[in-house]
Design goal:
about 450 residues; mainly alpha; two-stranded antiparallel ribbon
């Protein structure tokens, strides 16, 4: 067949599918959020498999279109209350960063670090405010996370079995995709690198585990709880200590605030996973307990203090981390950007101590709000969802000490998405309070009626 005709047919089919998806999202913008949640963990592997046939900018395009649809579909005479107070602080943080980028970089170059740093934290609150995720949406989100966690986890375990040479034969590159730690292959699953894989599994375990315990007899949740050791084993194959640090702190948070049985269930899973990992105990333990990496980071952080003290307003957005790599390519710079491996240090270097305090305030307010939402929720599933999201926020705050978490896709986007899901329980809490099951008329409750009259939860937004 003529290649030109084949290309035309391919683009034609893609166009028809794209229009159908666009219409589907326009009818109900929440679908765009769920579609993003389903595709984003597969972003790297889709680009690897399809190459130029899969556009790298689909993320911004999808969420931007979803935001426009949310604006179009909103009944402005009955706009839902804004229940995401952390977004106010993040907007202030974004203003500081945008001004910094425009002052220190050419406009065309500044757009990249602005997008990397602020896009998801700004777009998700807008979408969720105008079109909150109802009970059905939140349930679908948890199902998506469980399924993707299992699928990507099994693929990560598979990478351990086939080994580095087989992965290289499949087209993955050494030192880009294929990495080692103390002689151990670090699984990257569908994410391209170990860090996003392990941190995604951390989020799945905390949020989905908390929700599953609310209804342990539901088949979906029962399967998740039974397979918890697989999720843990998969996370361990990435050899990322930040994920284990976050998971431990998150579990302690859940146990302290809500459900001690979850600690017991996941504790048993951890023991089983540890027994499985014991087969590789020597290299695994020596790698995890090695102080070399932390020592190198500590040296870099100490050197950064001088820069922070000498530049109280920072040296400019996009001068460190992955954002700096993008800037270096755009400006054709040959110098290797500094990788702080600590998001707080990164913010302090780039934007100064004031911006750091604002960002810390974002995390603190997000945690406090999700905890309060869990206390006023009338439905046990929503209650546990909010607790799980608050635990995930605390875990992310801890993981950001040893990683630039908010530059790691898709985990950075999932952070803001999960906060939005928790906030939605305040304005769209329609479940059967007795058993947590969805009522027949509640699948699309955020569309069918105004959502500006929830139960009395005014303390949440003071």
């Amino acid at each position: 067949m003529n290649p030109a005709l084949m290309n035309a047919a391919t683009y034609g089919v893609a166009g028809i599918v794209g229009l159908a998806v666009a219409a589907w999202i326009l009818i109900r913008p929440q679908r765009g959020v769920l579609l993003f949640a389903a595709i984003s963990p597969l972003h790297y592997i889709l680009i690897f498999a399809l190459g130029a046939g899969f556009p790298n900018g689909w993320k911004e395009g999808l969420l931007g279109f979803t935001a426009v649809c949310a604006v179009i579909r909103t009944r402005w005479s009955a706009v839902p209350r804004f229940t995401q107070p952390w977004a106010y602080l993040f907007a202030a943080f974004a203003v500081i960063g945008i001004v910094s980028a425009l002052v220190t970089l050419p406009v065309n170059v500044a757009l990249s670090p602005i997008k990397i740093t602020f896009f998801y934290g700004l777009v998700f609150p807008i979408i969720i405010w105008l079109r909150p995720l109802d009970a059905g949406d939140r349930d679908h989100l948890i199902t998506i996370m469980m399924v993707l966690g299992l699928g990507t986890g099994l693929y990560g375990i598979y990478q351990q079995f086939v080994g580095a040479d087989a992965l290289a034969a499949q087209g993955f590159a050494y030192n880009t995709d294929i990495r080692f730690a103390g002689g151990l292959l670090r699984s990257f699953s569908t994410f391209g690198q170990p860090f996003p894989f392990a941190l995604f599994m951390m989020l799945v375990l905390l949020v989905c585990g908390s929700v599953a315990v609310a209804q342990p007899r539901r088949p979906r949740n029962l399967v998740f709880l039974v397979l918890t050791p697989i999720y843990l084993a998969a996370m361990s194959t990435a050899v990322v200590r930040a994920a284990f640090l976050g998971l431990l702190i998150g579990l302690l948070w859940i146990g302290f605030h809500r459900y001690r049985k979850l600690l017991t269930a996941l504790g048993i899973g951890a023991v089983v996973a540890a027994a499985i990992t014991a087969v590789f105990s020597g290299p695994v333990l020596s790698t995890f307990l090695s102080s070399n990496s932390l020592g190198e980071r500590g040296t870099g952080w100490s050197d950064s203090i001088t820069s922070i003290l000498g530049h109280p307003f920072g040296i400019g957005l996009g001068t460190t981390g992955s954002a700096a790599e993008v800037v270096a390519i755009a400006t054709r710079s040959s110098s290797a950007p500094y990788q702080p491996d600590n998001y707080y240090i990164k913010v302090a270097i780039e934007l100064g101590p004031l911006a750091l305090w604002v960002f810390v305030g974002v995390i603190v307010v997000a945690v406090l709000h999700t905890v309060r939402a869990s206390r006023v929720a009338t439905d046990p599933v929503d209650r546990n969802l909010c607790v799980g999201v608050s635990a995930a926020a605390v875990a992310v705050a801890a993981a950001a000490v040893v990683s630039t978490y908010f530059e790691i896709f898709p985990d950075d986007a999932y952070f803001w998405l999960l906060l939005g899901a928790a906030a939605s329980t305040v304005v769209a809490p329609r479940r059967d309070a007795e058993n947590g099951e969805l009522r027949a008329g509640d699948r699309h409750d955020a569309d069918s009626a105004p959502v500006d009259a929830p139960p009395d939860t005014t303390t949440l937004v003071r």
